[in-house]
Amino acid sequence: MIAAAATTIGTRAATAPPPYRFNVLAVRSLTTGSATVAPGEYPVITFSVTNPLTGAAYDLKTDPAWTTGGGVSRLFLQVGWSTRDFTNTDSHANTAGARGAAMPIPINALAPSVVPNGDGTYTATSPLPIPVTATGTGQVALEGHPAGQDATGAWTVRVPVRSAYRTFLITGPAVVPRRTVVTVTKCLGCHRSDGTGAAPQLTLHGNNRTEETQVCVMCHNPNNTDIVYRLPTDPQVRLGRYTLPEQSLDFKSLVHGIHASTTGFRTRPLVAIGFNHTVFDAGTLTKYPGELRNCVACHVDDGKRGTFELPLKPGVLGTTFDTRSISPTGTVTIDMNPADDRKVSPTAAVCSSCHDEGEEIDHMVRDGGASFDTTQLALDQGLVVERCVRCHGPGRDKSVRRMHEIR
Description:
This protein has 407 residues and is an alpha+beta fold. It folds into two domains: 21-176; 227-403, no CATH class. The chain contains nine helices and 18 strands. The strands form seven sheets. Strands 1-2-6-5 form a four-stranded antiparallel beta sheet, with no helix packed on it. Strands 4-3-7-10 form a four-stranded antiparallel beta sheet, covered by helices on one side. Strand 8 and strand 9 form a beta hairpin. The chain is globular, with a radius of gyration of 22 Å.
């Protein structure tokens, strides 16, 4: 195995900022006060930001670290569902034209409407209810950053803080956490700027989302694409022989695709459009310093069954590559109906994010039963059944572990 080299990522303050910890303390129903927030009910969230060394709470209403304007101070709660595999379906209620249907409900935790409880904690109420269509377990994330002082003493630095989350019951007998596939500790094998661990190193989206993959997947879910950030003039993305009118942002295909693009393994680099219409070309990034086929560089593995092995866990959804949200005039619109999304079946979505040549995709379809143009309903009804596990499952001659030479 090739040892991972250090990669610089993130922004650090000119002077060491005080330590911060985000805490999501409780999620309850506005209607009943119960820890179960049923469909149609509004989540009420109790949270705090504390100093992990002393336990003291920060004053979000007066501390310059949390009151500096221009986006330098930012703190948001995100409400999403279901942990079986996030989709956040119907979170777009009352916000048509402003949000993608697959995004969670955002709550500005620094807004005047957020109530201080007098004990260092704060209470925020969601502006939207849990949709009547939601089931299972929901999750609330706390993400953002305080302002830090630069060398002149001005509050201009975005200080990264590890994101936090808490699950809550929507329906069912008990809370079910989202599956664990990778660990941040493994991510930091490459994504680090020094060896001290003194400050978060893996921080993205303007130092807002930091070192918590269980928060990443709330937005980077199977239904989410870059469609809301695109203009009609943007070039379409190609996957092998398949032209994609938009790019999936699904974590399971996105991260593989980024790493494979940096090494040149993919035939075409992954290209997506991000916030502020920024073009993200993974082929231009720093080369992945590890061995690409070494799944356990990121994945959890106990030596018997790794999270990289087949079959995938039950409930893993197909990956959307076309939300059907482009009108005949070329105007991008919000995805109001995720049910009509065109999808890649889930195993193929992962494998093709690295193995994107036409012959490889043909193999997935012909021998593996995969589909590169289906719907979630067809997958749920068993009209598309992937059979990759027959050859690539654990113990098989061509298992993922064996083909990737994982020891």
